Description:
Layout lengths: L6 E8 L10 E8 L4 E5 L6 H8 L7 E6 L2 E2 L5 H6 L1 E4 L10 H6 L7 H10 L3 H6 L17 H13 L5 E5 L7 H15 L3 E6 L6
Parallel strand pairs: 3-8, 6-7, 7-8
Antiparallel strand pairs: 1-2, 1-4, 4-5
Helix pairs in contact: 4-6, 6-7
Amino acid sequence: xxVQGHIRFRNVHFSYPSRPDVPVLRGIDLDIQPGTKVALVGxxxxxxxxxxxxxxxxxxxxxxxxxxxxxxxPELNLAWLRNRLGVVFQEPVLFGVTIAENxxxxxxxxxxxxxxxxxxxxxxxxxxxxxxxxYTTLVGEHGTQLSGGQKQRIALARALVHDPAxxxxxxxxxxxxxxxxxxxxxxxxxxxxxxxxxxxxxxxxTV
Length: 207
């Protein structure tokens, strides 16, 4: 099924199961059109990350409906849904394996060409290609051999390697220095083209 990337929240209420008496979302309505960029801006605890968790189906809405292209999310296969979503968090998670394995992580049947294409889109291919071991370079536990900007671009390549219709960016540049932020932001701008993109930010100036 071809995904357009139309996201709808209709009168969505949500409380975490561990605290059912504390409402996190109250009657949220969102209509995010395919290929557009929408920013969720607000202070910590305002429910921004909860919206991502509902889109990824880590939780189900307490009431109301979350849909993709008109289909309620619970009606969609979970693995299929998550393959249509590319997620980049503020703190990238890298594993103590090679760069290529980090980009492929969790995806079946990804070719080397696809890995390199994703890395090119994420503005990290030239750096990887300059390393003596190239894509077989070990990144160290938690990516300790790499800078913050390099780790974030590898995380972006991982998000792009399966060509998702939707990008979810959770404060993706907020932990970087100005130089790294500029390089990562350029990669993100290219990645957003033609994709529905939802951005979490604490300040409007970071969008």
